[in-house]
Amino acid sequence: MADAAGRLTKLAEEVLGAPLPVRIRAWDRSESGPPGAPTLVIRHRRALRRLLFKPGELGLARAWVAGDLDIDGDLYEALDRLAGLIWERSDAPKPPRAALVRALARPEIRAAAREMLALAGAPVPPTPPAEELRRRRGPLHTLRRDKEAISHHYDVGNDFYALVLGPSMVYSCAYWESPQATLEDAQRDKLDLICRKLGLREGQRLLDVGCGWGSMVLHAAREYDVRAVGITLSEEQAGFARKRIAEAGLADRIEIRVQDYREIHDEPFDAISSVGMAEHVGRTQYAEYADALYSLLKPGGRLLNHQIARRPVVDEEAYHVDEFIDRYVFPDGELAPVGRTVGQLEEAGFEVRDVEAIREHYALTLRSWVDNLERHWDEAARLTSPGRARVWRLYMAASALSFERNRIGVNQVLAVRTPEPGDAGVPLRARDWTG
């Protein structure tokens, strides 16, 4: 089985009908592919067995998580070159599955496929790393299943997240004055922007849905003198947030609950922030989510919904969730086009007053998180697991490229429960939030 890299390169190029965009280095130390390009390192032939068992993205993800695949060189450049092959990017010349079907009709490709089976060795694929893979249980978006999904993503250790997120402990898109700003300044500016859009004033009552580690409610209470309730489904987040609040001397003005938004019954609130949480709600539950937030607000109250959006597709019913993200990162999460989000908020009774698209800001944020993870790699792997650290590095780097390429976006939607006879109570000049 000498020159495994050369044989794999030839096979890949025959299937794709185009030159391979990266180099390959195989387990036998052979190399092949364009000089100077990032190198896809296949550490073990197990990687091929995973691909044969689950062709496409999920097989590649399993090999990556297990450490059977790696990248030597610039990770972003490698993912950018591979994007059309892995994620079926809309500007890719040929969808990989269609190309594969056509290729397998040719005798020489069938022979090459048999050769890949020989290269892979034993035909039975090994089990993927169980501790990194979310096991689905029960109907979608029940209280129990949503809590389990949130725990899978967020209960991986506060110390791990502190390495990635930095001192702000904010796990959502920052708001950058310039690419040269610090992550801390950008996250502080994002929290303050939300408070100003909500028009927070002394003595008001704020609900933060999906409060994370408490950064939003801390900023609002400290800088705007509000009383705040933060809810999360993560026990680890709640414990961390309560400790921060006590240390800040704000325990009399901030309450943290482990609670689902569907279980809140102590309304009304003057304002609601929902930052990076609605992605977990799901298409079937979004109307209920919008109705619930509307009912929790006082007339005249404002909602700031900060949410990732995907691009629309021709057949929305055929849209499917990214397998790698669903199985390893955000179980049961779903993205919707911003138009659908605005429409459902309006159907719940809200008056939508502003939509601000900030996708470039998320690309900068993700690159900062990846930098933090890579600088603290050994400690991050120790605090969680090598496989989990590899999952986070891949998904954050790939997501940064998705925002940069406009495959996904992120929007802040300001909506008001406008009272009769119709004065929404917002300034006359757009985005003069405190006027």
Automatic annotation (TrEMBL):
GO molecular function: cyclopropane-fatty-acyl-phospholipid synthase activity
Transmembrane segments: none
InterPro entries: CFA/CMAS (IPR050723), CMAS (IPR003333), MeTfrase_dom (IPR020803), SAM-dependent_MTases_sf (IPR029063)
SUPFAM superfamilies: S-adenosyl-L-methionine-dependent methyltransferases
Its EC number(s): 2.1.1.79
GO biological process: lipid biosynthetic process; methylation
Gene3D superfamilies given in the database record: Vaccinia Virus protein VP39
Catalytic EC class: transferase
Stretches assigned to the Polyketide synthase-like methyltransferase domain: 160-419
Keyword Protein transport: no
Keywords, sorted A to Z: Lipid metabolism, Methyltransferase, S-adenosyl-L-methionine, Transferase
Family the UniProt entry places it in: Belongs to the CFA/CMAS family.
Name the record gives this protein: Class I SAM-dependent methyltransferase
